[in-house]
Amino acid sequence: MDTRQRSIRIAMLPWLAHGHICPFIELAKALSKRNFYIYICSTPVNINSFKETISEKDSISIKIVELHLPNLPELPPHYHTTNGLPPHLMSTLKNALDMAKPSFFQILNTLKPDLVMYDFLQPWVPTMAASQNIPSVLFLTPGAAASCYLFHIGRKKLVSEYPFSAIYLRDHEYDRNRHMFEPTDDDGYTDTQRRVNGCIDGSSEIILIKTIRELEGKYMDFLSTLCDKRYVAYVPVGPLVRAAETEHENSEVMKWLDSKQRCSTVLASFGSEYFLSKEEMEELAYGLELSKVNFLWVVRFPVGTKITLEESLPKGFLDRIGNRGKVVQGWAPQLRILQHSSIGGFVSHCGWSSVMEGLKLGIPIIAMPMHLDQPLNAKLVVDAGVGEEAVRDKNGNLDRQEVAKVIRKVVAEKTGQRLRKRAREYSEILKSNGAKEIDEVVEELLKLCRLTTRHDSTELLY
């Protein structure tokens, strides 16, 4: 779709996390093909990690703007991101972003965008945009099922009144996310709930959300009723799955996959910012071994970890599995791997982007969620019939027998045929949708934008 107008200018401010920045970038790429001009604002440490994902062609319409956080003794510049951030500094990072208001105000004042697109933890952004008569839109990168459960509770409504019984938290999952639910002030809200509520209420007419209506339509409709002040329309932007990596097509990993039979192998990968504990790694290792299923396991360690791969795995594990399994440390071309004909299942933490990737490529999911929205995403995966969950015990611990059982169920048993069929049905839906969701997003954004000529300033560009 062509807007047939001068380029509409959008300033984007995603939360300082890889899992949030990537969907903003993919949305920017889609919009840039429809006569939108995008400025993506982030901290230098994040920019260094994502600037190479914006091609020379994309960079014509997508510009990077540095956002400078204040210099805090406990939060040096390399911690201006959630990647590698010690957990106890998360609230400090949120506060530091709040303290960057003058920097972002200067960006808006200089660029004078037609629209501001922001994330779920910055309620001051729509207020600042409104002060300059600029419309602003919240873009939610988590899915609708997880969002409406968390927003329902965040609006101080009873869990018993939540209408979708398939989406819930077990006791140990609630305990792991207790910081999201227990009030921090006299008003009865947590800091996260207060921020999210402000972001929802500040969005101009619509809220964008990374999903498809065919999967989460009823949850999107319910979300629209949760705003206290008015009815808000939630507009799906689609799965925003990035293009598959091509430079590793003939790598050692791909050659190893070529030696495996169709749908005989699982990929085990847990995202770029979530890490298994030593105990979890051990249970997963034994689970993979006991399953007798081929596997490719991508192992990552937190920044600064001194433990070696061999030290983190059970003694003799690599020798026992032989060529049936392959363990890769650090990074692997996940999308290329998931596209391979030998892959029959995806052992995943159920980060929302990973769920969307699995569905886009028609791969059933073996859910091993950790925290935040992941347990809720896992319930959706099971309810939608596109995967099974390796359920932890009542204390939240993984069990090797459970892991092995679920892997075999998805890959080696008849149940897996039904799951693969359903996953492929969603894959066909996503393929047939094409650009439908983005076209709808363009129409909605054009309604909000003031189509007046603005001065083109580039002095802040990276």
UniProtKB/TrEMBL annotation:
A Pfam family hit: UDPGT
EC number: 2.4.1.-
Gene Ontology MF annotations: UDP-glycosyltransferase activity
Stated name of the protein: Glycosyltransferase
Native species: Nicotiana attenuata (Coyote tobacco)
Protein family per UniProt: Belongs to the UDP-glycosyltransferase family.
EC class of the enzyme, as a word: transferase
Keyword set includes Transferase: yes
GO term, biological process aspect, one: glycoside biosynthetic process
